[in-house]
Amino acid sequence: MGTFDVPTVATPAGLPRRFGAYFFDSVIITLAVAAVFYTLLGFDNALAQFLQAVPDDPDAQIRFLAERSLIRNIAMFLYLAYATVAEASPLEGTIGKWLLSIRVVDLDGRRIDLRRSFLRNSGKLISLLSIIGPLFALRSPIRQTWHDKWAGTRVIHTHVP
């Protein structure tokens, strides 16, 4: 059996491990996007004006909130693109998943293709925002969230030698 072969009975990855990987990846990407905005695109000025503004200064508040939302939206888009490519790669997951010894496979334990990964990650928005998606995994014997069910995928724990 090779390093990335799935054993006959794969251990489903638990939600804490999955959320940990998501948190790690999304924080790193968000910090990178925020650093670009802060150093190159003037977010430092928006932040300073917001922190020094009189509480009733709507211009400073609006500028800060608009730029913060833009950072969040760009980071989310980059995360979804990154996760889509990473989960279809030979790594079978993001760096966060790799660090926590989990990976995304199809129901037969094989690596997923880019189309299936795109479906999984597109559905992740609905699944996570509804909060019911991850809770769905608690009732699933293989811990499938909604987005895993839709894409025909599962996340497994890989025991690293």
From TrEMBL:
<dbReference type="GO" id="GO:0005886">
    <property type="term" value="C:plasma membrane"/>
</dbReference>
<feature type="transmembrane region" description="Helical">
    <location>
        <begin position="20"/>
        <end position="41"/>
    </location>
</feature>
<dbReference type="InterPro" id="IPR051791">
    <property type="entry name" value="Pra-immunoreactive"/>
</dbReference>
<keyword id="KW-1003">Cell membrane</keyword>
<keyword id="KW-1133">Transmembrane helix</keyword>
<protein>
    <submittedName>
        <fullName>RDD family protein</fullName>
    </submittedName>
</protein>
<keyword id="KW-0472">Membrane</keyword>
<feature type="domain" description="RDD">
    <location>
        <begin position="13"/>
        <end position="152"/>
    </location>
</feature>
<dbReference type="Pfam" id="PF06271">
    <property type="entry name" value="RDD"/>
</dbReference>
<keyword id="KW-0812">Transmembrane</keyword>
<dbReference type="InterPro" id="IPR010432">
    <property type="entry name" value="RDD"/>
</dbReference>
